[in-house]
Amino acid sequence: MLALHIADETTRSRWRVWPDPDSIPPGAIHEKGSYHFELSGSPEAVNTDLLIDDLAIEALRAPGPDMALWRWSPGFHAGVVDAELRIPGSSPRRFEIITDPDRRKLTRDDFDSMVREILDDTFALFSLSSFRTAVARGASAKPPAIARLEFLRSRIEELEEIVTAIVRNPRRRLSAEEVALPYHRAQRATGLEVLRSFRSGRPLAESAKPSRLPAALRGFLPAQIRIRQRLNSLDLAEHRQMGACLRYWASWLNAAADTLERELTGGEVDQRQIAVAWAARCRRLARRISRIATAAPFAEAGDAPAHLMLSAVFRHDPNYRRFYRVWQDMNLGIAAVFGDFLRVPLARTYELYELWCFLRLVRAGTHEFGPSSLETSNLFIADAAGGLTLATGAVTVSIGRGWKLCFQKQYREFWKEPDAQGSFSRSMTPDVVVISESTAAEHTGQLIVLDAKYRIDEGLNDALSSIHTYRDALVQEAATGDVKGIVTAAYLLAPYLPVLGSDYRRTQMPSRLFHPEYRKGFRFGAVTLRPGASIIEIAAALRRVVDDATAGPI
């Protein structure tokens, strides 16, 4: 029998992926793993190709003449990948494989939360800036970034599940309307409806003898009888809005595919291949959304703007409430937001986590000091086409009361810097630096280094060397020629939830790094920043960092 299986090289676990795919347990296919695809029962196996995201993967020597073997490693990839099996003489077989983050990291839900909050923080901080442009409408001549498209694709499957649940049990509107019917078709008309119909209709005289009409009608009957009919309708305002949103998203994806196809004339070969792949994916996603837009609740409803109003239905019905949340995510995904962080696949979790930490801390600063203290002029670049670029390289943002947050600030060798501050070994770029403007001007060296590590469990032990390096190697040369360290404290930022004991000496690693006494005593350790945490929680973490490092309030 012709079949394609995937097997884990380490555990030897095996699942069929085509046809009739098996249910693969969550976490079984994960980044950094290594897997074999095994095709069996094909006389054309030697000429068969297997493509992952439109790129052919490594073929191995097969154990039999009717078999084919390929090796695949997802690398730093977590999400949905498109696979295509090309057997000569038959149409391509396409299927999807879901890869999870490494088991030492977080789940796909946490990963999606992180991306959502990056985009949400971008809008929140942009609204506090001096720029005034409608970036949320998503209109831009630039091709959409890969990260935005991957984020949108991750929402489509959930969207289909929600619409299926709504179609099974949709909200309906019960109403009554008055309909005029010829007297011979109004068999179920009530006496009151017949009497009311005399007011607006032409009366007819009965010619039959004896009369079959009630005596009270005296031989007359309205030619048209107006009766009230009860209607069970799907034409709700919510269904009109939802249908309009679905049609708009499908249109946006088709327009994105057109824009990507226009970009095929220039650029590197790899970039053109990526553009071709994503143009095709956008059209497939548009077709999937168009199909669910034809479901009965939306097809029977009228037209409305592509905008949801938070009504009682969206607040109280679980399925409609889920659709409202996905609508918010889709709006973030299609907005005209650009930046270097969006040019890489979402699966490169460590890069996104670094940016997520920075934006969350900046927004926490507005919560702590008020929005009037925030200066974001260096953070955004707005263009005339309506796009917004998030500048994420060597950015400094003032958050108030003399405090600054720096993202990926570069420290070169100290003898090359005008202020004589830098590294005594090589150029270094911490993820986030918290610095007091007043102490910086006095050159007293009060500076807190925060190194974001998207790791949990034992992976945090391996990350300790980075903050040791920052604390020891960043220095300043005094006028006398003496060199002293400028790092007040150094901490890891990680999504890890520690188990703390009463004494840090009895607490196991890596939880020991998060112990308050350990952090405060050594001005060294780790702080939990986890996707999904509220701004209040992030602000509390920022206060703890500064309190531990400076022995005083922020």
Q: What structural category do the secondary elements indicate? A: alpha+beta
> Kindly, what is the distance between the CA atoms of the first and last residues, rounded to a whole number of angstroms?
68 Å
Q: How much helix, percentage-wise, in residues?
A: 25-40%
Total count of helical runs of at least 4 residues? 13
Number of strands: 25
Mean pLDDT: 78
Report the sheet with the most strands, covering strand number, pairing sense and barrel closure: 6 strands, mixed
Shape type: extended
Work out the count of structural domains.
3
What fraction of the residues are assigned to beta strands by DSSP? 15-25%
Radius of gyration: 32 Å
Organism: Microvirga ossetica
Domain DUF2357: 75-327
InterPro entries: DUF2357, PDDEXK_7
Protein name: DUF2357 domain-containing protein
Structure characterization notes:
With 554 residues, the protein is α+β, with helices and mostly antiparallel strands. The chain folds into three domains: 3-99, Sandwich (Immunoglobulin-like), CATH 2.60.40; 145-167 and 236-334, no CATH class; 350-550, no CATH class. Helices cover 35% and strands 23% of the residues. The chain contains 13 helices and 25 strands. The protein has helices at 108-127, 146-168, 191-197, 237-262, 269-293, 296-299, 312-316, 318-334, 349-369, 437-442, 459-473, 516-522, 535-550; strands at 3-8, 14-18, 35-40, 49-52, 55-56, 58-60, 67-72, 79-86, 93-99, 173-182, 203-205, 220-222, 224-233, 337-339, 380-382, 388-390, 395-400, 403-407, 421-423, 432-436, 447-452, 474-477, 483-485, 489-494, 524-528. It has a six-stranded mixed β-sheet with strand order 17-18-20-21-24-25, with helices on both faces. Strands 2-1-3-7-6 form a five-stranded antiparallel β-sheet, with no helix packed on it. The N and C termini lie far apart (68 Å). Residues 128-140, 336-347 and 439-445 have low confidence and may be disordered.
